[in-house]
Amino acid sequence: MNANTQKKPIYMDYHATTPMDPRVVERMLYYMTQAYGNASSTDHVYGDEAEAAVATAVRHVATLLGTVPRNIVFTSGATESINLALQGHCHARGIRQRIAVSPIEHKAVLDTCQALEQQEKATLTWLRVDQQGRIDLNYLKEVCQAGIDLICIMAANNEIGTIAPIQEIASIAAQYNAAYFCDATQAAGKIPIDFDATGITYMALSAHKMYGPKGSGALLVQSDANLVPLIHGGGHQRGMRSGTLNVPGIVGLGEACKLRDQEMDQDEAAIQVKRDRLQSLLQAEIPNIVINGNLNHRLAGNLHISIPDLDNSILIAHIRHQLAISTGSACTSGVEAPSHVLQAIHLPANLIGGALRISIGKFTTDDDITAAAQLLAQTYQTINQKR
């Protein structure tokens, strides 16, 4: 069989990136090939059409996330959004900011916070999480009582899938007059989020985690917040992020948000059923398997497992041409250091070494679930027999 006609591996790495919804692709294609105007060039109909498309996308993002269009700044993705929020917040205030940060945040948040600390723009206080990745809210209150300017706690963890109580966190932030930055990259379009009603100050998201394009994201900013921009020139987007707007990417993000708003509840319920079936099949075939994260409050498509004393890299090497799963976050894929998330929740070393992140989505089929379970079980048994 020709290599190009071989069956592709089953894809179960939706937390790294999702396949694009064909409806999103179709919508974007028109703005790549037909309506290619610059949204800032409003002296002709090409620019008018592009500007109108951006306005429509803004409304779709606002509707999904419970805010108003003026609170949305389009970016190149969540990493830029995170940097704009954290750097922009600290630089706008002139004095060193006291930041309380969860130890299980994405590396984009952790690295930015640590860079600000090295630049003497921030002092970091590390929050506490339990073995399921849940924030210790009592300790958060203690930290805030001692004085905190900014809280950084994600909406849902990108490795173990634990969902945070963002309403309670936002209420604590408000009580102590602290800003709240919420990385919703993994959560947006999967769980309901109401940005304005919750009282979050800044929120980051990325299109490619919800069936949209890579390279397109947004930062939600409350109207009374003050950020120093990272990118200057032209004063686009109320001066908060200059540069010619990526109209196809913005359209793709908007369309993805519209579809998530319409289909999220139904899709996530179906995804959870498939995830639970996969979990049951693996538990039946692999002895001592451990399910990580908060089993009562996790993303529907998340199944983070540990197989005691297994070398996860050996298992991945066996199955990589048949099944796409990961040993951790995509940002650290291939990095030999143990996952900082699994270390922070104090997972034993023999479980960290045998950890696998399986993440499914709306395009995962029942046949995929059956085949993946069989492959993982058979591969585990093969490796175990050789030990």
CATH architecture of the largest domain: 3-Layer(aba) Sandwich
Assembly level: single chain
CATH level-3 fold name of the largest domain:
Aspartate Aminotransferase, domain 2
Strand content: 5-15%
Biggest sheet strand order reads: 2-8-7-6-5-3-4
Describe this protein's structure.
Belongs to the class-V pyridoxal-phosphate-dependent aminotransferase family. NifS/IscS subfamily. Its cofactor is pyridoxal 5'-phosphate. It comes from Dictyobacter aurantiacus. Keywords: Iron, Iron-sulfur, Metal-binding, Pyridoxal phosphate, Transferase. It holds the Pfam family Aminotran_5. The chain is an alpha/beta fold. It folds into 2 domains: 135 residues, Aspartate Aminotransferase, domain 1 (Alpha-Beta Complex), CATH 3.90.1150; 239 residues, Aspartate Aminotransferase, domain 2 (3-Layer(aba) Sandwich). It has 12 helices and 12 strands. The strands form 3 sheets. It has a 7-stranded mixed β-sheet, sandwiched between helices. A 3-stranded antiparallel β-sheet has the order 9-10-12, covered by helices on one side. Strands 1-11 form a two-stranded parallel sheet. Strand 6, helix 7 and strand 7 form a beta-alpha-beta unit. Helix 3 packs parallel to helix 4. The longest helix is centred in the C-terminal third of the chain and has 39 residues. The two termini are 34 Å apart.
